[in-house]
Design brief:
The complex is a heterodimer of chains A (124) and B (110). With 124 residues, chain A is mainly beta. Chain A is built from 2 helices and 11 strands; from the N terminus they run βββαββββββαββ. The termini of chain A are far apart. Chain B is an all-beta fold. Helices cover 0% and strands 45% of the residues of chain B. The radius of gyration of chain B is 13 Å and the shape is globular. The relative contact order of chain B is 0.33. Classes of the chains: A mainly beta (124), B mainly beta (110). The interface between A and B is medium-sized, with 23 and 26 residues.
Chain lengths: 124, 110
């Protein structure tokens, strides 16, 4: 059973936007939050922020807050991450991961279920 | 730039014990729980340790986590070839109001 299923790879031009989806199981969507983490080629992991499935509340890191939007669709139990004004350095694998629905539980219990990742390539 | 500092690489022979350090500060490790993730080549990360020292079901007890003051460690005992992977520490940072991840440590089994 796949708990988090992400969308297909994307290729974008600099300045464009990308919207990555993460289809969650009904249980995850209604009872957990979803974090987004990215990994540039050969680099480490970078946390971008998180969204609560059932109410759409969000928290973004300062680095991304001016150009990222995380949304939810309750009808399809899907979470979306849109990143705008893409630059070459946004080329990365973007992962969604299940977390607790509060800051405390997220920090305490970690990201315990991961999507397969979506490769986003920014090139001209 | 990560505020959780890990050694870039470590190596060991089969059966050995290796220990990965993760150094932070009072605003992150010093006041919040630490988690560890394992990322096998070409795969998504997986949770290895949470709440400083607890293992999710299915994680072998060869993996153990500890924390002291503003540093944390992940020990891998009885090192096996399948442990060859990247390992990342993570902790919430109260000053940044964000989840921090270490730069990662590549473990090589010789």
């Amino acid at each position: 059973q796949v708990h988090l299923l992400q969308s297909e790879p994307e290729a974008k031009r600099p300045g464009a936007s990308v919207k990555v989806s993460c289809k969650a199981s009904d249980n995850i969507f209604r009872n957990y939050g979803i974090s987004w983490v990215r990994q540039a080629p050969g680099q480490g992991l970078e946390w971008m922020g998180w969204v609560i499935g059932h109410n759409g509340n969000t928290h973004y890191t300062q680095k991304f807050q001016h150009r990222v939007t995380m949304t939810t669709d309750t009808s399809t139990t899907t979470v979306y991450m849109e990143l705008r004004s893409l630059v070459y350095d946004d080329t990365a694998i973007y992962y969604c991961a299940r977390v607790g629905r509060t800051r405390t539980t997220m920090a305490r219990d970690g990201m315990d279920v991961w999507g397969q990742g979506t490769t986003v390539t920014v090139s001209s | 730039q990560s505020m959780l500092t890990q050694p870039p690489s470590l190596s060991g022979t089969p059966g050995q014990t290796v220990s990965i350090s993760c150094s932070g500060s009072r605003s992150n490790i010093g006041g919040n729980y630490v988690c560890w993730y394992q990322q096998l080549p070409g795969a998504a990360p997986e949770l290895l340790i949470y709440r400083d020292r607890l293992r999710p079901s299915g994680v072998p007890d060869r993996f153990s986590g500890s924390k002291s003051d503003t540093s944390a460690s992940l020990a891998i005992s009885g090192l096996r070839s399948e442990d060859e992977a990247d390992y990342f520490c993570a902790a919430w940072d109260d000053s940044l109001n964000a989840l921090l991840l270490g730069g990662g440590t590549k473990v090589t089994v010789l």
